[in-house]
Amino acid sequence: MDDYWKELQGKKLHDPLIQNQADPLRQILIEGPLIVGAGPSGLATAACLKQKGIQSLILERAECIASLWQFKTYDRLRLHLPKQFCQLPFMPFPSDFPTYPTKQQFLGYLKAYADYFKLKPVFNSTVIRAEWDERCGFWKVKSVKDEKVIVEYFCKWLIVATGENAEEIVPQIEGLEIFEGPVVHTSSYKTGGVFRGKKVLVIGCGNSGMEVCLDLCNFNASPHLVVRSSVHILPHEILGRSTFGLSMCLLRWFPMRLVDQFLLIVSRLIFGDTAKLGLHRPKLGPLQLKNLSGKTPVLDVGTFDKIKTGKIKVRPGVTRLSRHAAEFVDGSVENFDAVILATGYKSNVPSWLKERHMFNEKDGMPRKEFPNGWKGKYGLYAVGFTKRGLLGASMDATRIAEDIELALESK
User: Fold this and answer.
1) Of which family is this protein a member (predicted)?
2) How confident is the model at residue 189 (pLDDT cuts 50, 70, 90)?
3) Of 60, 327, 331, 389, which alpha carbon lies 20 to 30 A from 141's?
4) What rounded mean pLDDT belongs to the chain?
5) CA distance 397 to 234
6) Helical H runs in 148-271?
């Protein structure tokens, strides 16, 4: 690599085209790993590496850490799981935090985490291309700094921490472009206050869609929830304990199939037959479905009561929109003032990472299933793509740091 680097710098020195440029391409050799993304996954990985004495460089396209949490989450958001399942490696949440920290508390925790480990990402740096260079045996990572300066990094290890939620998913619905009311993705939704007194169509029945409907109710809006497929709704807590935590405990002693049966029995006792309200359950149990497809069950925080009382109306899939109305698959048509798309997010890895072995070019997710999707070839790693939230990201971060430490020791 030293010979290659000297040759590269020599070409730059004697290339008249480069000499005549006012702002030539900057090329930087990174001794340690390069991490793309300064969300919880990237921060956790950098901290795990630092604990082993390995310095890394974090590139972040936004102007701050955890930009998704900062700018693309609604005000009422709390962590859906107890804080002990959401803490990053080597630093628990403060003891005075509630069981389910608020959005602002979580952001404060992430800032304290970055400060404690002295993590200083390079902000406003958008990676536009990354590829393995067979000749020099390094990854070439090209980024745009502050929308004008192009910087090309060379690194031995490339860690993709841009996550499953890098870009919004906007579904193709006929007539969406001609609907005359506001059309808002949940990434831009903050509070139901702006929809007070409005009739709102919420498309998507995951945790976000359910919570947005509840928030709209709290501001005297009239939400209609589109449920296009089957969905598991579980109580947030069972007998005062987190449903997730209780499930993890039971899985130590019982097979997943039996734990699923227990969850469904309890849910039936609490909610009754949800199918009568248009919420049909999948054939697979909630844990089996999550394990196989990554589809997360809804943890109810009060939305179901609003559905039972009719304050939130469940609607089937939408076939088309017109200027003021929606037509549903059952043939019914109804007017609405606004549409909120609770249709989720997707990975953006294929847009910049030129690699076909580790990541699927269609959905930008690792080809290998959990728990084997964190490591690829030539020093390429993925963190935060497990569909298991912050707990999965922490597991990835720990594995990656251990693997790079072994690679350094073997030199």
Assistant:
1) Belongs to the FMO family.
2) very high
3) 389
4) 92
5) 29
6) 207-218, 243-251, 256-271
Whether 360 and 368 have beta carbons less than 8 Å apart is answered as no
Alpha-carbon separation of residue 318 from 60, 76, 213, 229, 322 (angstroms) = 37, 27, 17, 12, 11
From residue 26, give the alpha-carbon distance in Å to each of 22, 57, 76, 381: 12, 16, 43, 25
Residue with tokens 């389910």: 100
Per-residue tokens: 212: 């947005």
> Is 388 within 8 Å of 370 (Cβ atoms)?
yes
- Two structure tokens written together for 37: 């993304």
Which tokens go with 348? 């953006």
Angle 214-179-345 (CA atoms, 0-180°, nearest 5)? 55
> Tens digits of per-residue pLDDT, 20-60?
444 557 899 999 999 999 999 999 999 999 999 999 999 99
Q: Residue 356's pLDDT band (boundaries 50, 70, 90)?
A: confident
Q: Residue 111 corresponds to which tokens in the numbers above?
A: 């800032």
How many whole angstroms separate alpha carbon 175 and alpha carbon 170?
13
| pLDDT one-digit tens code per residue, 377-407 | 999 999 999 988 999 999 999 999 999 999 9
The residues that bridge with 231 in the sheet, in sequence order, are none
In angstroms, rounded to a whole number, what is the distance separating the alpha carbons of residues 25 and 332?
58
Helical H segments across 65-222, by residue range: 67-71, 103-116, 207-218
DSSP helix/strand/coil, 261: helix
Q: Which two tokens stand for residue 295?
A: 């589809």
% helix, strand, coil for the chain, step of 5: 35, 25, 45
DSSP code per residue over 323-392: SSEEEETTS-EEE-SEEEE---EE--GGGTB--SSSB-TTT-SBSSPTTSTTB-STTEEE-S-SSSHHHH
* Nearest partner of 168 among 148, 183, 146, 147, judged by Cα: 183
Q: How far is CA 285 from CA 62, 114, 245, 262, 275, in A?
A: 38, 38, 17, 10, 15
Is the preceding peptide bond at 282 cis, omega within 30 degrees of 0?
no
Burial of 269 (C-beta count, 10 Å sphere; 0-12/13-18/19+): exposed
pLDDT score, position 148: 86
Cα angle value 329/195/223 (rounded, 5°): 35
**What is the C-alpha R_g of the chain?**
24
